Amino acid sequence: MEDKELELMNKAETGNGMVAAGSTVKLKRELGLFSAINLILGVMIGSGIFVSPSSALEHSGSVALCLIIWTVSGVISLLGALAFAELGTVVGKSGAEYAYFMEAFGSTHKFWGPLPAFICAWIYVVILRPAEVAIIVMTFAEYAIQPFTEDLNPEYKDTAIKLTSLAALFIMTYINITSVKLFVKVQNIFGVCKVFACLIVIGGGIYEISRGNTANLNKGFEGSHWSPGGIALALYSGLWAYDGWNSVTVVTEEIINPGTNVPLSISIAVPLITALYVFMNVAYMTVLSYAEMTSVPAVAVAFGTRVLGPASFLIPLGVAIATFGCAMSVQFGVTRVCYTAARGGHMLEVMSYVNVKRMTPAPAVAFQALLTTIFIVVGNIKTLIEFASWFLWFFYGLAMVALLVLRKTQATKPRPYRVPTIVPCFVLLVGIFLSVLPIVHDPSIKYLMAVGFILIGFCVYTVFVYYKKTPTTMLRQFTFLTQVLFESVPPSDRQD
Fold this sequence. Notes:
Helices cover 70% and strands 1% of the residues. The chain is built from 20 helices and two strands. Strands 1-2 form a two-stranded antiparallel ribbon. The protein starts with a helix and ends in a 7-residue tail after the last strand.
């Protein structure tokens, strides 16, 4: 029986006859410049700027300081993204932070060297990104079914939101498993629609300003909160809305001509989004007072009701489009982190396998869909992402250390793109500031939860990765079944 099973495993590993000898099975370079720009737009423009952009205003205390926070957040995001562009082009692997940590620290010590990369993959793949996708897709469902559930019992409405969320998750998972080209086509359409929705809000703001409605804007710095902790929390809020600026470096291996298109897509997309976000906030503040912006459940909807009249339905539609596209792009990105981590031996090996017909990491996509499904069913998971910005900026800061280390250890390696040294140093200081000051300013149990997740990851790494204590027979059977189910084989460029 065991010999027969091994024979089937060997057949599966050669594609079961579906892949010719000598053929290449790996992820293909199918994302051009426009698609790379739309990927960044897809991840960065989510529900935040439409539903809850008021957190930065609440922490900053004034209109003028809030707009400065949004502008500074955009500049920081651009500098961080450009530093990641250098890392992405010099390392040349998908997975962003995971790949950079392995390249910079992996060979320094047998146990401690690969640990930062594993903890990063553990947090992103198992907890943070699936929970984020679940919340985004539930936001999509809430706005998508809003016209049909206004008079529905709250309990039934909650069930309807979860069912719609699962349906949307199934669709985006199907797209990401089926074809990268299909994902690109859908994402390009959604990206254009998102920008159009943002321009509708900005156009409404320009119209109100032209009518002389500037009373709220004229308050300037009135009520500003200048404490370092308050500034840090305001930056957290702004930078959370900008998160996703590193998304193109997560899929470096699928970018056509990455040495040019990675930095160029970042240089176009991030400033564009910064301009959209700043002018959208100006539009909101033109129409809504400080009290209204910090109290309404959805700022853009309140704005649309007051300014757009019969066309106000465009705002919930824009939120639905933005959230679906964002969730699909986040799922696309995190599956590449899972794929790269599995290829490096830090996840189940089968998660690095590629569908022989579609050239997609089908097992990794399905795994992420399963985790997201669990988070959707659980429902009340917002606490899990309350400390997301803390994790993100901790890893972003560590990535800047990796960049500086690689400049020393791989000084002769060709660098298609290089940022001035002051840029990673500045982003590192921002990462330290945003990792330390909020804990001092507002100590909370959520930071203990963050440490708890890291400790669990440390235990998993020690037992299953370093000492390789895995149930071999069960794992082999699981690998075989997964290969057959998803028609997947090891990539030709796997790291043995």
